[in-house]
Amino acid sequence: MGHIRRTDGGSWQARYRDPTGRERARNFPRKIDAERFMNVIEAEKLRGEWVDPEAGKVTVAEFSERWFATTVALKPKTRAGYRSLLDSRILPYLGHLQLRRVDPLVVREWVAELLEAGISPSRIRQARNVIHAVFGLAQEASLIVRNPVERVKTPPLPTSERRYLTPAQVRQLAAFMPGRYDVLTYILAYTGIRFGEAAALRRSRCDVATSRLHIAESLAEVAGDLHFGSTKTHRRRAVVMPATIRDLLAEHLDTVDQRPEALVFTSPTGRPLRYSNFRNRIWRPATEAAGLHDLDVHELRHTAASLMIRAGADPKLIQTQLGHASITITYNVYGHLFPDRLDELADQLDRLILERQEGKPSHRRARDRDEGLGRSI
To answer: How far, rounded to the nearest angstrom, does the alpha carbon of residue 175 sit from its chain's CA centroid?
Structure first.
């Protein structure tokens, strides 16, 4: 336990030992202030919330660099996104502040400044998640007591209408795709794999005999550089192709490099397919020609999900096909597309009722029983 003493200069000194055993002291002009401070310190020690008051003096900019150094295991594209958010949206506003000086009000003011500067709600949410991770590590390292970002909310994301193509529209789009990219269009629209997964697909992972694609890699473009790595969820999976799409792929495989490790879809010069080049030089002209203005490549993935749901696929199979980390993600993104089965539920319950009775439930029988009970009373 600590103690309080009067100093020669007339102030009151609160002395205590921190959890490491180091003796610390702090002076106050009044005895009651020293007592209150001591009560707070002892309570924090009992709750395991005490932190070194010197530790929180490190700035947000300094500690953010230490945090960023711990993200080396993440995918290059993810790290590049974090770096961009730190440099453009976080450090210019908060970097000069000491960790201990950042409280929920400061964070709320930062969010408001970003919004006033015209930053999109999506970008603000991404920045909020990054700074939340920074302060989360600071809390784990006992540099601060609480994460000031924990309960700070960001502006709601605007609701955007997803586009789901019909099979006829998919055919129309594929017809305007030059060369080999009609097959890529069908693959994206009927298997639901991501563009990066299709760009990293190799011959050896195309099992035409069983109509399976084995998804094990993804290709990402980061600051102009191409990176082959694991899939978004870091998991391998096998996806199924309809027979018609399988046959198109088989024909396509006869026209490309025959080595097992060769990429199935490449640029016109045979190099790995860059998303930026594909979108600007191939995708946009084809979608405009097909009358599908402003269609995003990712909407072929949405199309695949909608077609699988229309075909009556089990949600768990759809999750596996799309490579979602959990069935919750599948329901959150596409749950509104599943048919309303409440009427089906009512019919099933009705059948159960009729199976256990000779006829429909009778209100009259119940009323007669109640009236007979009344007469007996």
So the answer is: 34
- Nearest to 283, CA basis, from 273, 270, 297, 264: 297
How far is C-alpha 341 from the chain's CA centre? 29
End-to-end CA distance of the chain: 76
Element (H, E) at 366: helix 363-376
Residue numbers in the chain where pLDDT is lower than 70: 1, 160, 341-342, 356-377
For 320, other C-beta atoms within 10 Å of its C-beta total 17
CB atoms within 10 A of CB 147: 21
Three-state secondary structure call for residue 13 = strand
By three-state DSSP, how is residue 3 classified? strand
Residue with tokens 């709600």: 121
Q: pLDDT, tens digit, for every residue of 130-161? A: 999 999 999 988 888 889 999 999 999 887 67
Contact 152, 104 (CB under 8 A): yes
- Residue 33 structure tokens: 């202030």
Query: Is residue 68 within 8 Å of 82, Cβ to Cβ?
Result: yes
What is the reported pTM?
0.72
**Distances 17 to 35, 50, 97 between C-alpha atoms, Å:** 15, 11, 28
Give me the amino acid identity at 340.
Answer: D
pLDDT at residue 360, rounded to an integer: 55
**Is 241 in contact with 213 (CB distance < 8 Å)?**
yes
CA 224 – CA 302 distance, rounded (Å): 27
Nearest to 150 by CA among 132, 164, 134: 132
Q: Are residues 160 and 182 in contact, defined by beta-carbon separation less than 8 angstroms? A: no
So what's the pLDDT on residue 359?
A: 55
3-state secondary structure at position 196 = helix
CB under 8 Å to 212, separation ≥6 — which residues? 238, 239, 240, 241
CB 7 within 8 A of CB 27: yes
Compute the mean pLDDT over every residue in the chain, rounded to the nearest whole number: 90
